[in-house]
């Protein structure tokens, strides 16, 4: 793998490779830069490299390369510039989605192009052959060839992004957006398997997030923004699961939402809870869990009524009607009747789990089956004032099925109400979270409930009834369906009845003397008589003497109130004192009990340890004895069997015998048996030898006769097969001649077709050859242009070097003239100074002592032009005035300028110090050589290879 001094060089090299069609090499070059440890500091060039890298990965469908590169880039920019990683990931997903959509549109266009307008036209031979061979349709083949690879890449893209962002608190929004897009992908293309995997991936990410809490960049679920993003993702997962009709996955999504709420211990917004319970109602209805379905509807109704102020009265009425009908759809009997203890425990655990999901707080120590029951549900309907919001038909139906006793015409009353209810429902307003409600889906359950109520009431009144009469009373079902319903009700102890098909009658039996109907029949009868008496003879109201009673009543109430307050305070003091004494006694008793318990436990532990050791030793000894006894008995049995076979006296069980004795006896017996067997075998072998020799002597003439007879038969058979083969060859030859005569008529057509195919292929060959020649000519011209440009550049460099050399020579001559001029000026300036000094000394000698002060003032006031003048520029140092060094300095090349080898060898002197950069011919000022782009180009033809340039200029 090539190494690059700068990332920019790798990017430039990759673009060159892409232009010549070598995408794999370009991808490898960029991959080496991204995974290299030399470039761990983030810079803008790395971002451009990543953009090019993901584009190549998408074009070549290399998902693993993309994942590896993104992981390395995350390490680079995690702490420096995380927004760069976000932009790269967005670009990656955009490219994958765009490619998948393009492939899908291309497949659709291909199918539309293959759609013939002529319905009578035959199919193409290629389509017929493919259909017979593969059994696939054209659309299936085009999807498999065009669409499926890009869809796989898109799915792998989503998985890669989710895996990279799963523990990144700074890119939680991007993680949520990726999950939403993956859900929409599964929903749009009906990808149920990928949806299940996606849900499992997100679920595992959250589980690992809760398991490893010491990670540095772990998202904080206690933050409101993070919690909202996670909840949005789960609710989107729930919506897509219900739309794809993956009800099991939808229930798991509900459990995920509930688990998330339990982790953060915070209730989400009411708008989300409404969607949550709306989906729960659908899930439980599909799973035929009517009791959970009804409780979910009740919770949804409560939320809508409390928090949705924009809900219309009609929508609220439909929701309340759904709640009541869902409650009525619950079977009126307990299905756990007659169940085992294990089944009851499982039912209790399931009820606790579902109660927590629905939002009902239940005490786990109580009987949860009674809490989530039909009776408790109907009582909650009354407490929540649901019946006041329902339609009149639903209210009448509820009253008939739950409170009225009319066994003969119950079904006739219910039937018109059910017909009206089946027409109710439809789409709700936009303010409601439930888009549509259809009450007709509850009709089968309500008809079954009406049938059960009718059977229950009839069983209380009648003992025997004809089947025809009962069938006429139930207009919903045939008697076969009624019989199935009644069997289920009898099984769960709801009614007691028998069907006698021979007599055509139904027998209703009592459920025992302790049944509800018989146990309370007297109280019900008394209440009915009291109501009838009050209706016939209304009671007279007695006038109260208010004036006499109110005064004494007020005084009595005050006294009683004071007495009760005093008594209450006394009772509370006594209770406090008694509780304090009891608490002290309990503490003392508890301390004594704990001490005694420790002593008892220690003694018991020692006793159990000793007893356990003793038992273990006894058990080991007993096992050894039993094993030896079993082996001895087995040997005894074997010895007895052998003794019976040989006529020997068997060993009696009462005789005293040991294991060692039995083993010795068994070995002796085995040795004797082996010797006897060897003698028998020797005798048998000698007998077999004599028999075999006699048989072969007798069979020898018979074998010879059989051989001669077989020779005659095989000769006759060979002649017969030869004649048969000759006849078949003549017949095949005649058939081939007939076939040749028949096919000779098609020879002209065959030659015509062959000529047409040859001409077509020749034309294609000429066309391809011409295109190849044009391409080769273009390449030759381009290489000639490159060589011409290179020659011009070399010529220009030589001219430029000569010009620079001439300029340096002129500069050296100018410097020498300047040095001579400065020397002359310095000599003149020194002569003038000496003359001025001499004049000054003469003037000083003429002045007198008394004029000292005036002379000093004159001396201080001397003009500046008469003071010694120092040169502003010192002459060149002796070192710099040497011609060798000046020549070397002037001839030293500027930094970044290319100097040929033969010119560098002429330069003499010490190490060169690079002067300031100079402008090139086009006015460009740069520290790089102007010929870099020519040296980085791979010359073709007669150009010098790239390896001949200096390694520092690559």
Automatic annotation (TrEMBL):
What are the annotated GO cellular component locations? eukaryotic 43S preinitiation complex; eukaryotic 48S preinitiation complex; eukaryotic translation initiation factor 3 complex, eIF3e; eukaryotic translation initiation factor 3 complex, eIF3m; multi-eIF complex
Q: Which SMART domains match?
A: PINT
Instruction: Give yes or no: UniProt keyword DNA-binding.
Output: no
In which residue ranges is the amino acid composition biased (Basic and acidic residues)? 746-776, 805-859, 917-935
Q: Which Gene3D superfamilies does UniProt cross-reference here?
A: 1.25.40.860, UVR domain
Keywords in alphabetical order, please.
Coiled coil, Cytoplasm, Initiation factor, Protein biosynthesis, RNA-binding
One GO molecular-function entry:
translation initiation factor activity
Name of the protein in question:
Eukaryotic translation initiation factor 3 subunit A
**Subunit structure comment from the entry:** Component of the eukaryotic translation initiation factor 3 (eIF-3) complex.
User: What stretch or stretches form a coiled coil here?
Assistant: 561-642, 667-697
Looking at the record, the residues that make up the PCI domain are 316-513
Q: Which GO terms describe its biological process?
A: formation of cytoplasmic translation initiation complex; translation reinitiation
As for subcellular location, the record says: Cytoplasm
> Per the UniProt entry, what species is this protein from, by scientific name?
Lactuca virosa
Q: Which InterPro entries match?
A: EIF3A, eIF3a_PCI_TPR-like, PCI_dom
Chief place where the protein resides? cytoplasm
What job does the chain carry out? RNA-binding component of the eukaryotic translation initiation factor 3 (eIF-3) complex, which is involved in protein synthesis of a specialized repertoire of mRNAs and, together with other initiation factors, stimulates binding of mRNA and methionyl-tRNAi to the 40S ribosome. The eIF-3 complex specifically targets and initiates translation of a subset of mRNAs involved in cell proliferation.
Q: Supply the HAMAP family for this chain.
A: eIF3a
Similarity section: Belongs to the eIF-3 subunit A family.
Ranges for the region named Disordered are 732-788, 805-954
| Composition-biased stretches (Low complexity) | 867-883
**Taxonomic lineage:** Eukaryota, Viridiplantae, Streptophyta, Embryophyta, Tracheophyta
